[in-house]
Amino acid sequence: MRRTRNFIIYPILLLGLLFFSCTETVIPGSNQLDIELKDAIKATAALVSGEASLDYYVLPDPSDLDAIPQDWDKNPLNPAKVELGKFLFYDTGIAVDAKFESGKNTYSCATCHIPEAGFRPGTFQGIADGGVGYGIRGENRRRNQDYHPDDMDVQDARALSLLNVAFVKNTFWNGQFGANDANIGTEALWNEENGAITNELGFLAIESQNIEGVHVHRMDINKVMADEFGYTALFDEAFPEYPENERYSQTTLALALSSYLRTLMSNEAPFQKWLKGDYSALSFEEKEGALLFFGKANCSTCHYSENLGSNEFHALGVNDMHQIDGFSSSPDDFRNFGRGGFTELESDMYKFKVPGVYNMKDTPFYFHGSSVRSLEDLVDYFNDGVKENPNVPVEAISPKFKPLDLTVEEKAYLVKFLEYSLRDPNLKRYKPETIGSGLCFPNADLQSQVDLGCY
Ligand code: HEC
Ligand code: HEC
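^ thats the input. predicted complex w/ heme C below
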């Protein structure tokens, strides 16, 4: 009797032990490289958040609105706002304040922030009002001959990506938007000329910027338009607390756009899958690249926030838009001076915000002046650690920007990590199927209509 019981019990115990030891230490598909990479990422997360956990870099699911950073006080997310913003971001019907008749109803926010281009323009400089053409991913956008360059809606800097923008504390390359974080104490500098005057409304950065943005990008909405495009019910559901005479306005337009933007997460990128335990999501080369990013290549000393950017400002001495002949660009534009163009402090001159780096492969234009045109060249720029812009004094260059001594192989690994691990291949999910006005989108000039198959 006794013997038989042991005969049964021992193997069960043994199996149990094996099972537990399996789940405890040997995770399927994980190897030494995964363990090393986890340690490196956890060490960075610990420095930033105080907690040595991979979870810090796991982006929320866009449908989990409560998990998304937002302005709980003045623009809490709700599904109606997000849905409304998703239409309005693309709707050429609201492009009614064009400079000339031929520009009217031809552009949208997505003209310069194209999902297929990683929410950036398809060309080195975004052109909304005053541009024509689309191509396949915005790469054939050019000047509308009716417009003088000074009449075009163009900026003296490349459009930033909007992916994971919910994690950006102060928006713009110079961080001028938002009354929060880096801008505490800058109140005297908020004015009509730089547009930061909207910070006085007390919203967080994205909302503050977009209230200015819809005006700058020549868009508007009112009750008549909302009715005509079928958006009235969504406005009512999204903004019940606004009295009816204020509910269909540039402000609520901006708040709906902001809500939609906050849901733009690159949560389907392979690196995200790896963080969540799918160790086969990255190749050997990509893992080596990630290890470099969080280690020897120093990238994470600046790119350490959830979006792999940060709210730090640094001078890398890259060229400005006027040095590559951008439209309506000038050596005197305040945008060339980065944070210093806003704060007017000598110590902030030529320092730009550390941008997020997901979906960089989608358009080949990098840095605020689009001066670098491939990820290989970008990695070379960081590896060499030498400024390219003669106007930026050597003393202004960030002490964290210095030669890296990476081997040819290591540079290739780093490029692979940027190209594939950090690329969400399914950004199309953020695009609406149709828009309320029924016009072509994201552009609707004649050439774009042909390019986009609206004709
Ligand atoms: C003409 C092209 C263009 C259009 C149209 C455009 N943007 Fe932008 N966007 C830019 C540029 C350029 C920047 C960076 C400007 C800077 O920092 O100096 C930017 C930056 C942003 C940022 C800040 C991102 C960050 O990380 O700091 C947000 C948010 C944004 N745009 C939202 C919008 C919304 C919403 C619309 C529509 C109302 C819009 N944009 C239309 C060109 C454009
Ligand atoms: C000193 C801080 C710092 C370090 C270190 C650093 N970066 Fe950056 N990175 C920045 C800043 C600031 C910018 C924007 C500079 C500009 O446009 O003027 C930037 C821009 C980028 C961009 C282009 C983003 C865009 O929207 O154009 C990529 C990609 C990038 N960095 C990747 C890396 C990689 C890879 C490394 C490591 C080899 C690295 N960075 C190291 C601060 C840093």
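Residues 1-24 have pLDDT under 50 and may be disordered.
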